[in-house]
Design goal:
globular; Peroxidase, domain 2; 2 domains; binds protoporphyrin IX containing FE
Length: 333
């Protein structure tokens, strides 16, 4: 049980300070930050990640999503990993985030060789890069800058993620707030080329779109029929469906997501809107018809990795990825 030393006000002030210093620390990250003190770190991470991926390839979408949620909520500072009675983990959009055990295994392996040198935030960033590589069948790889410190504030009440029902423009605003461009946003949503969603996120699109008692007219009618079979109304269990409905590539990191949304076969409302909204439709077509999605996705993931990075002054290198080093300087409840 973390001792609560921060009052709500001090957490607020701290958060505002962190937000306004958001730009100060971009320069601190660099490729090969651990070259001197932990030369092998990226090899160690890759070894553990590859073993885990062979057993469970769904770790790739799980970790990509974890990286996105962590970076969007109070910066890429592993605050999403902190256990606590009302930490970010407990916010409802985090309920289906997985991959925490893999991070624990990597941390153990890394600390065996380099004791308490590598941050959990960097472990997430490196592991995510490796899983993108593996899920693409080795077709892509990007150098990921490191040098992040781990945060000591994790509050469910400050989680600020886009919801699937927001418009493109509202979603773009959330990315802009974090200095991410419209292009970054369209590329990053390409993360939905692998992984799954629960039926509950699209029941309205299948059965009663905007209270019309009709399916979403922007969804291909054949797809509506397929998905209704997988997501029946009144079922007691919440089924899962692939985010990339080209079933030959549902588990492969590739350009297929953009081709699907251009054929009215997007799953989440926001996915489909990317292809329809005038703000993004041309970007979507360019990506769908180009041959550089994977490398551009890598660059966008690098850009996401700069959001709200902590430094020595406002972060630490955690001993355990699930808790702050000192309970007295840890706000998780
Ligand atoms: C911008 C607005 C976004 C919204 C509204 C959104 C929403 C969602 C939702 C509702 C799910 C399904 C969760 C579930 O049913 O368990 C999901 C899954 C996923 N999202 Fe997003 N997402 C967004 C952006 C992103 C970004 C930027 C990335 C990565 C760079 C990403 C990566 C993923 C992945 C990989 C999954 C599948 C997770 C799994 O299979 O375990 N999403 N997202
Ligand atoms: C589905 O994906 C495969 C592999 O990426 C591709 O060759 C095929 O053309 C796609 N099918 C459709 C209908 O787009
Ligand atoms: C993966 C994970 O840790 N999910 C947790 C999210 O929060 C709920 C409680 O609200 C936990 O039960 C889950 O284990």
């Amino acid at each position: 049980m973390a001792v609560k030393i921060f009052s709500t006000t001090s957490v607020l002030i701290l958060s505002i300070a962190l937000l306004s210093f958001g730009h100060c620390c971009y320069g601190q990250l660099r490729v090969g930050f651990y070259n001197k003190d932990c030369r092998n770190v990226e090899n160690i991470v890759f070894r553990v990640v590859r073993e885990a991926f062979i057993k469970d390839s769904s770790l790739a979408p799980a970790m990509i999503r974890l990286y996105f949620h962590d970076c969007f909520s109070n910066g890429c500072d592993a605050s999403l990993l902190l256990d606590g009675t009302s930490s970010e983990k407990k916010a409802s959009p985090n309920l289906s985030v997985r991959g925490y055990e893999l991070i624990d295994d990597i941390k153990t392996a890394v600390d065996l060789e380099c004791h308490e040198i590598v941050s959990c935030a960097d472990i997430i960033a490196i592991a995510t890069r490796d899983l993108v590589n593996l899920a693409s069948g080795g077709k892509t790889w990007y150098a990921i800058p490191t040098g992040r410190f781990d945060g000591v504030v994790s509050l469910a009440s400050t989680v600020d993620l886009p919801s699937p029902r927001m418009t493109v423009s509202q979603t773009a605003q959330k990315f802009a707030d974090r200095k991410l461009s419209l292009t970054d946003m369209v590329l990053l949503l390409g993360g939905h080329t692998i992984g799954v969603a629960h039926c509950s996120f699209i029941m309205d699109r299948l059965y009663n779109f905007q209270n019309t008692k009709q399916p979403d007219p922007s969804m291909d009618s054949k797809l509506v029929q397929d998905l209704r079979a997988k997501c029946p109304q009144g079922s007691s269990s919440d089924g899962i469906i692939n985010l990339d409905q080209n079933l030959t590539s549902s588990n492969t990191m590739d350009v297929s997501f953009y081709k699907e949304i251009n054929s009215r076969r997007g799953i989440l409302h926001i996915d489909q809107q990317l292809a329809i909204d005038g703000m993004t439709s041309k970007l979507v077509s360019d990506i769908a018809n180009g041959n550089d999605f994977l490398s551009r996705f890598g660059q966008a993931m690098v850009n996401l990795g700069f959001v709200g990075v902590k430094n020595k002054g406002n972060g630490e290198i955690r001993k355990s990825c699930r808790s702050c080093n000192s309970p007295f300087f840890c706000a998780t409840s």
